[in-house]
UniProtKB/TrEMBL annotation:
Residues 1-26 form the signal peptide. This is DUF461 domain-containing protein. Coiled coil: none annotated. Keywords: Signal. Residues 169-219 are annotated as: Disordered. Residues 169-195, 203-219 have a biased composition (Low complexity). InterPro entries: PCuAC_sf.
Length: 219
């Protein structure tokens, strides 16, 4: 290749790189636009690695309802461990396995995932108080062998990427169909056909009147 052609190829390559850089900058720093998840809390204790720790609330900021802790725990040790408790601040989470009941076990050489379809859950029934997306909460995990792990986890709403990892369901609307059918037919059909003939005049009364009239005609 001649020197002039080589220079042209280098210039063209530089132009492509500069355009690609400008395009990336034009997308902005929004994590959702770039498809990048926010930083998540992680820690290592003993043979356990705790990663991707988040507190996920209701989709709307002003909505009341439960929240959940989403976390993945890897066990690189030779023995199984049990996740005994999860707390967010002073709020204790309710731990439920993916199937049935019993403790949340992290087998040796395997992992435990909290949150998401088909996984175990750590639910905070009353939410986490006055929090909003972007806030940070202290999450404390207690393990059977490795002890306590404390992390600072970001609070995110159950929208976008986290929609499938949020609380199982929002509370039902209050008072919608609760009192609708009550009292509707009461009293409408209270007068049944059984009471209709109760006040009818029996033949005994006109019989007496007829006999009196007959006596008068005799006079």
């Amino acid at each position: 290749m001649s020197r002039s052609l080589r220079r042209g190829a280098i210039a063209a390559t530089a132009l492509v790189i500069s355009i690609a850089s400008l395009t990336a900058c034009g997308a902005g720093n929004d994590a959702q636009t770039l498809g990048i998840k926010p930083d998540t809390a992680g820690a290592t204790v003993g043979k356990l690695k705790v990663q991707n720790t988040l507190v996920i609330t209701q989709p709307k900021a002003d909505a009341e309802g439960p929240a959940v802790v989403s976390v993945t725990v890897f066990n690189d040790g030779p023995k199984a461990e049990t996740l005994e408790s999860v707390k967010v601040g002073s709020v204790q989470a309710e731990l439920k396995p993916s199937k049935g009941s019993g403790p949340l076990t992290i087998p040796a050489g395997a992992s435990l995932v909290l949150g998401g379809p088909g996984n175990a859950t750590a639910e905070l029934p009353d939410g986490v108080g006055e929090t909003k997306g972007g806030d940070v909460q202290e999450v404390v995990l207690q393990f059977s062998e490795s002890g306590e792990v404390k992390l600072k986890a970001i609070v995110v709403p159950a929208t976008s990427y986290y929609a499938g990892f949020g609380p199982s369901g929002a509370p039902a609307p209050s008072g919608s169909p609760s009192g609708s059918p009550s009292g509707s037919p009461s009293g409408a059909a209270s007068v049944s056909p059984s009471a209709t003939p109760t006040g009818n005049v029996t033949p005994s009364a006109p019989a007496a009147g007829a006999s009196h009239a007959a006596g008068g005609d005799g006079h």
